[in-house]
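Subject: Sanity check before I submit

Could someone independently write out the structure tokens for this chain? I want to compare against mine line by line before I put it in a report. The sequence has 330 residues.
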Amino acid sequence: MSSFRMPLSRRALFVLPALVAHPALAQSNAQGADYPTKPIRIIVPFAPGGSGDITARLIGKYIEDKTGQPFVVENKPGANGIVGALAVKSAPADGYTLMLATTSTNAANVHMYKSPGYDPEKDFQVVGVIGSSGAFLVVPADSPFKSMADLVAYAKANPGKLNYGYFNASSQVPSAVLGAKAGVEWQGVAYKAIGNAWNDLYAGAIQFMFVDLTAARGQVVAKKVRTLAISLPERSPLYPDVPTLSESYPGFVSTGFLAIAVPKAVPDDVKQRLNALINEATSSPAINKRLVEEFALTPRTLDLVQCAQQDREERAKWADYVKIAKIEPQ
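---
Independent answer below. Compare away.
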């Protein structure tokens, strides 16, 4: 999938003088052929413990083992992923600072914020898609709500008395959409980190929240939460007893994605190299098995053109979600 050209030999410099007039092109080719020659840093725009953090470390370990260069995960949470995105935008465009691109950073924020400070299409390019997935609607294991019907019935009888937590777009928007479709009023509580949201859920400060399947898995396996619904188009083979949202509200599906992006100006050869490494990682038997069976992700193997196309399609899809949720841009 990759196409790399070695640096021009001394003889080639005389045979092809036209290339000498374009040192940037020659440098790009050299970078792509040799990349990486030093540690790679990936900025995860959310706190540790979420699906992005978990999968970034998984893919990063593969790239580190494959290339022999350290792969460092740096968490920069804040403002629904905007803090981390801006850090990557301002980093050198050399391929050594990557971004864990998510539904929030690349699809939802442009519709939820008037001035996020970056344009996901103009400032970044997705170089690999790890996978797509959905979310659980969860309540504490000792919650009185046994089903989504119970939750909605209580909310209708007690307007404004239920609180939901959120820490990114994938947890905020579905909660608001559900409220709109069910015709109920409940209040959203914002959290900077998923860990704080879990703590408040167990303490009773919030009564429910949407959590992506990867991040929720540990709590579900430990039976600390009850899953009332799943946001996938169909029931998951991993969780066949959990009903879909669309079983109660036809057409209500909420899916997101995890990917890796770089600043737009990164040399094309480096982008190709990263695309090859990420696709190798997601398609390797061991990682593919974990993504599917442990994290309930649907792995993707896309080239750069397909990555860009999916990125655009996700933005269009989440524009519709935000509109239905009636979330006014901040």
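---
OP: Matches mine. For the report I'm noting this point. Residues 304-325 form the longest helix (22 residues).
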